[in-house]
Amino acid sequence: MPTPGWRRLDRRTVAASTIVAAGALAVTAVPAGSALLLAGVGLGWVMLWTIGGTILGAAATAVIEAARLAVTSYRVGAHRIERRVRFLSSSTTSLSTGRVRTVEISADLVQRRMGIATVRLASGETDGSRLVLGALDREVAEELRRRLLAERAAADTTELVRLDPRWVRYAPASVMTPLFGLLGIGVVFQVADWFRAVPEMLDWIWSRIGDLPIPVIAVGVVLLALVVGTVASVALFVENWWNLRLERYEDGSLELRRGLLVGRHTSFDGRRIRGVTLHEPPGFRALGAARLDVVASGVGTGKDDEGKKKQSPALVPPSPRAVSTGAAGTILGEPVPTSLLAHPSAARRRRLVRAGAAVVAATGVTLVPAVLWPWLWWVPLAALGLSAVVAIWTALDNVRGLGHAVTDGVVALRKGSLTRRTDILERDGILGWNIRRSPLQRRAGLATLVATTAGGSGAFRLPDVGRDQAPALWRTAGPVWDHLAE
Fold it and tell me: Could you tell me if 145 and 153 are in contact, meaning their C-beta atoms sit under 8 angstroms apart?
């Protein structure tokens, strides 16, 4: 029994987690079972593995969740919120209520039907110390959010962005789309490998396409990967961004609601927002789209020092660029800089040299099979042509994207090609600058500048800045940084 002041998590968590696990296993069992049947495994064995595995997995989830519920408790005090786990030993995680800067309430489809939700809290420290309570009664979770956010929870808001369903057309333009397709194909082969059915599956596939020319098969595989990737990208977009609504409080804090199957309600403390990041990979640029993330303390990708996943920085999904830049301008308090200062021609030469080295390396690797099997003489030529086109285009596109701008309120840093991003940081939030020069950069009169701030990754890199351009950047953090010129 918990001691006075300590509360248990909601008991409905066990049933909700079990149902979700059973559903996930059942969905996985369908392609796995199909692959096994195609590989010639008997129907009885397929039913045993799929249905039996689903039942065992769901039962294991129920036992694990029941045990977690029995050993976990929490309490909310005047100054701290604590979570305690008492199993073989006792472990307590706590956050100061005054330091909580982001609050996320999420609930999947089953949790919403059962009236429960998971609460994730993050502090204002750079490492984003987190505390997760999963799950609480929905009303208890909302009351906790209102208590932690104090006056802000009841204040009026201004709507910045609301989802337009037509934005889903931008989802397949992500650089992740072909990777999703390859991942899907890889999963099928991995499942078949578990049952040692890969040879049978390959024989079945080859019996149907073996008479086709190799180029046709290659094009078919690429198209299959793109189709699978497109379906996956659209599905992820709908799941992550459905019912999106981004609102802003008068004090600069943000309120984000989104999600189809898993609904999320996230609050970002305006005092901890240090800027925004615009993401514009080639597909987005071709369609005039962009995606927006927030730069804030305790928010970012990856995990914190305790191994827990950080609060997601996502604010606006792939959408018309004007939507993302408009939201960014409102958050920053001034328009997003549109005219960036280009970097010296030496930066262009460095990228073209690297592109040439990549072409030579790719061609050299493909010479090996051509020497061993002379009938593959065309492979190095194809590799040379393809790698040259891709490498040179990427290098020149990288040069076009490289730039920066300094205004009275913000510093904009843009770089990249396939993963182009523009980090727009508030000048007041920049703690300092680091300068790095490789021997080749010194000869070319270039340097890499890294802005440090208490938000996001904490370091924002801008490569190949001209020697005469660098002072205007590092002086945004004060004249004390002029010693970097030495």
Answer: yes
In angstroms, the CA 59 to CA 198 distance is 30
CA 141 to chain centre: 26
Tokens of 486: 């030495």
Here the tokens at position 469 are: 């351009």
CA distances from 102 to 130, 200, 236, 403 (A): 9, 51, 24, 32
| DSSP strand pairing (341-342 vs 314-320) | unpaired
Q: Cis before residue 78, ω within 30 degrees of 0?
A: no
Q: Are 228 and 180 in contact (CB under 8 A)?
A: yes
| Residue appearing with tokens 């919120």 | 81
Give the residue ranges of DSSP H helices in 375-453: 378-401, 439-444
Q: What is the pTM of this model?
A: 0.82
Place of tokens 């200062």: 341
Task: Give the tens place of pLDDT for each residue, 355-404.
Answer: 999 999 999 999 998 888 888 888 899 899 999 999 999 999 999 999 99
Distance between CA atoms of residues 52 and 47, nearest Å: 7
- CA separation for the pair 180, 462 (Å, rounded): 29
Handedness of CA 160, 125, 456, 305 (dihedral sign): negative
Q: What is the Cα–Cα distance from 55 to 28, expressed in whole angstroms?
A: 13
Q: What gap in Å lies between CA 326 and CA 246, rounded to an integer?
A: 12
Q: In which residue ranges of the chain is pLDDT below 70?
A: 1-4, 38-39, 124-129, 150-155, 195, 302-308, 477-486
Q: Which residue is listed with tokens 């690429």?
A: 222
Amino acid at 58: A
DSSP code of 344? P
For residue 361, the 8-state DSSP code is H
Cα–Cα dist 446/429, whole Å: 25
Tokens standing for residue 357: 């080295």
Helices 12-38 & 43-71, crossing angle to 10 degrees? 160
pLDDT in tens, 266-303: 988 888 899 999 999 999 999 999 999 999 987 877 66
Tokens, residue 256? 């984000």
Task: Extract the tokens encoding 421.
Answer: 């991003």
Q: How many Å apart are CA 208 and CA 215, to the nearest integer?
A: 16
